[in-house]
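User: Can you write out an input/output pair for a complex, sequences first and structure second?

Assistant: Here is one pair. Inputs:
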Amino acid sequence: MTTSIKQLPDIEQVLSGNGACGGCPATMALRIVGKALGSNAIMLLTPSCSVASMGMTPKLGYNWPGINICFATAGSSASGITHAVEIMKEKGRLQGELPTVFSWVGDGGTYDIGFQALSAAAERNDNMIHFCYNNEAYSNTGVQRSGATPRGSFTTTTPTGKRQPKKNMALLMLEHNIPYVATATVAYPGDLYDKVVKAKNIPGMKYIEILAPCYLGWQFDMPETVQLSRMAVKSGAWLLWEAENRKISFNKPSSLIISGKKDADPVNEYVMKQGRFNRLLKGPDAESRIAEIQSDIDREIAFMRERAKITI
Amino acid sequence: MKSVTKAYQPISWPMKGAGGDTGSWRTHRPVVDTQICTKCQLCWVYCPEAVIDRNEITIDYRYCKGCGVCATECPTGAISMEKEE
């Protein structure tokens, strides 16, 4: 049973008046993550929008001890800190419950630049949570192509639309045989909250990826952040699932799409709503390129459905 | 939130308004109609800025950036966006 909105705790770890854009999905997600993790945590930030939005010295917009680290080091820095905390506890320099070490990283720091260190940390199974808030581009530097950018999407480095599909990072992390992997999105806060609470109580490496529709990068109207996030799930472009001990289970409403009880919405409406696909829709080959996007989504659904059947 | 009233350099301290008084960014202001509001708290959970009080459904206009997510997500239409003077 998913936690209802009224059951969410009062604690606020993202403070009002930070430097994020209005309607930012990253702070929206981080608020829910904060409610689940509580204040006893250490936050690691690689260069991303969340660093830019933490505000100006001497004030900090997040109510955690936060460390700004190099772009490629999300995995290695978190490993170092989690080991240091354990040794401090052993030597008696740290009392009480151990703080949760988590990194809050964008899709650039996870899919591309930070992948090597993250993969190594996952292989070592260090006790940390890696959050990837995925806005499908390098939005902080003005929307460049990343490994998470879907096919057909406009970025400043793919002016005619990206030609390659995105990679399934959550599945790659699952294949590192880590104890917990989950995907979530901002439109389903109860689902996200439950996944973070679950991850907090599992020792070892945890990976949670959150789809964050960025209105600037995706080029839609600012108030529609949550709507776009919901449409991504309903069209099957984003699947909500979690894998505990390598067993995949799907969450509502993605579970209905996977089990075939409900058809996924056609991708057209989701694509039309976003300005980043506009150039693609204006061209003479618009229909075939939308069909390409649809086939990427269908392939991903079919693949995940079969992958979930492997339970050993 | 820790009760820090003064920040000491070079460490930053958690405080409201780290990006300044972000309410000045607003072009439209969300206004809650308490007659229609059912206090479902959807606006509170989706607010990226944590400016909505979950029990009273009041908005802290000092920091509200006027993104309009609350007005779009409100199921009863109790929140309307009014143009700033």
